[in-house]
Amino acid sequence: MKIKEDEVIKDILKDAETRMQGAIHALSDDLASIRTGRASPALVERLPVEYYGTPTPLMQLASISVPEPRSLMIKPFDPTTMKSIERAIQASELGLNPNNDGKAIHLNLPPLTEERRRDLVKHVHSRLEEARVAVRNIRRDVHNDLRDYEKEKLISEDDLKRGEDELQKLTDRFIEEISKVGQSKEKEILEV
């Protein structure tokens, strides 16, 4: 019976780890779209562009390159999408003006002001807190599952305690990882 109980706990914790990893991945994708002093294709690649009536991520419609540290060049695969891409950039929260030369769209990123940097750091902190909440919610769900299994006598009280300890270690590890991701992004934003 002991082997089956160990398997149940291992499966639950593996599932929790996968879900927490997903929260970190979502956070990283989210933070990549926050502007820093340097140009990065991640800034615009997920930007929704109206393409034949469907919002389509920019990265599916154009190649995005970084010719210089503070500029992006967007080359549409289909030249007829040029206007739609320009409109999407202007409508976004990026606050950038696209320059169209007929073949490509150039985006020049002006240096960030001190006030804008502070706003971006606040934004990063709120995203980090959302990720921490997501990880804690996963912990709560898994903890409830463990308790249910113990009530249904699928695992023993000792296994429940061991499972709870392992779950807490897992949660602490991911909360720590969220902090590291946040510190690195904050450093990137504040770098002049």
Strand order, main sheet: write it out. 3-4-6-5
Q: Which fold name fills CATH's third level, the topology of the largest domain?
A: Topoisomerase I, Chain A, domain 4
| Main sheet overview | 4 strands, antiparallel
Q: Return the CATH architecture of the largest domain.
A: Orthogonal Bundle
Question: Unreliable runs, pLDDT <50, ≥5 residues?
Answer: none
The percentage of residues in β strands lies in: 5-15%
Estimate the helix proportion, in percent.
55-70%
How does the helix and strand content classify structurally? alpha+beta
CATH superfamily of the largest domain: Ribosome-recycling factor
Helix count equals 4
Which value, in Å, is the CA radius of gyration? Answer: 22 Å
Query: What sort of overall outline do the alpha carbons produce when their principal axes are compared?
Result: elongated
CATH class term of the largest domain: Mainly Alpha
The H-and-E topology, N to C, reads as HEEEEHEEHH
* Count of beta strands: 6
Averaged pLDDT = 89
Give the N-to-C terminal Cα separation: 61 Å
What is the number of domains? 2
Task: Provide a descriptive summary of the structure in words.
The chain has helices at residues 2-32, 82-91, 114-151, 157-190; strands at residues 48-51, 54-57, 62-68, 71-76, 98-100, 105-108. By secondary structure, the protein is of the alpha+beta class. The chain has 2 domains: 2-33 and 113-190, Ribosome-recycling factor (Topoisomerase I, Chain A, domain 4, Orthogonal Bundle), CATH 1.10.132.20; 41-108, 2-Layer Sandwich (Gyrase A, domain 2), CATH 3.30.1360. The strands form 2 sheets. Strands 3-4-6-5 form a 4-stranded antiparallel sheet, covered by helices on one side. A two-stranded antiparallel sheet has the order 1-2. The mean pLDDT is 89.
